[in-house]
Amino acid sequence: MTVLDRLSIDPNSLLASLQSGVVVHAADTTIRYANPKALELLRLSEDQALGKSAMDPHWRFLDEIGNDLLPSQYPVNEVIRTNSSLSNKVIGIVDSSSENVTWVLLSAYPEFNAANTIEQVIVSFADYTNHKATIPFDEIVDKANDVVLVTKSSPVDGNGPEIVYANRAFSDLTGYSCDEVLGLTPRLLQGENTSPETREAIKSALQEHQSIRVDILNYTKQGDEYWLDMNIFPLTSEKGDVQFLQRSSETSQIKNICKKSWKNLPLWIRLRTF
Fold first, then answer.
1. What domains are there in the chain, each with its CATH number?
2. Using one digit for the tens of pLDDT, what is the confidence trace for 99-134?
3. Pick from 105, 126, 216, 270: most CB atoms within 10 A?
4. Within 13 Å of residue 18, how many CA atoms lie on the same side as its CB?
5. What does the H/E/C string look like for 184-235?
6. Which residues, other chains included, contact 163 with Cβ-Cβ below 8 Å and sequence gap of 6+?
7. CA 30 to CA 26: how far, in whole Å?
8. Euclidean distance between the first and final Cα of the chain, in Å?
9. In angstroms, rounded to a whole number, what is the distance separating the alpha carbons of residues 141 and 172?
10. Rg (CA), the chain
């Protein structure tokens, strides 16, 4: 006799009253059971939910920063693939009825049969939407004064690293539209007077997944020179994927002021600095 039996508690009533969603997946990921809160969060009726698999095109899942998860990274698939539990993972759920994201704090664990293979996966999740920042990443950085670029981590040579994001400040400074540079390399901004030593230092840092800060001379789409104080650092997601974020501030005006001030110094002072 279980504790619930001794206390005369109906398990179905208990599950139905929970303010957390509970979904039971079979080993092939089809849904065997979903309690009312789970149906509410998934925006499905019971008839619609039962028999659906994790691969159903009705929905897609996002990681904590809003990137689409690959099917192999879906929570139930990850539990089945690794034979281990997940705990307190933030996941976004988007279904075909709306682009609104439901954010949940999710845990999942496998149940094994006598042959020690997974028989089913129990997934529980609570609504986390109100705790999640509602201002998207691109809206934040698009309003920044600094130039922001995000690139893939490889390849570093050839046409890499590939630009996957550029903010509005980048477009204002360089004359390139954001869409125009997607898939291209930031080296398109370098030119005849860009220091070879600086180029090599950047390349070496990217290959080693190291941060670097340099002053670099770049070129606009129209061919005009400008100086940047450029910071590049790696970003690693919880899946282990690496991207590079480049945050830069234009320093052309400061460089020009320093250059003019230097020229205006008496010759004997300029000579004594060496």
1. 3-131 (3.30.450.20), 137-252 (3.30.450.20)
2. 788 899 999 999 999 999 999 999 999 998 887 655
3. 216
4. 21
5. CCHHHHCCCCCCHHHHHHHHHHHHCCCCEEEEEEEECCCCCEEEEEEEEEEE
6. 149, 150, 151, 181, 182, 183, 184, 185, 186
7. 5
8. 90
9. 14
10. 27
Residue corresponding to tokens 């019971």: 46
Name the residue type at position 152: K
186 half-sphere exposure, CB direction, 13 A CA radius:
32
How far, in Å, CA of 174 to CA of 181, rounded? Answer: 11
> Which residue has tokens 């893939």?
152
Two tokens at 199? 């180029």
pLDDT 10s digits, 146-204: 888 888 888 888 888 999 888 888 999 999 998 999 999 999 999 999 999 999 999 99
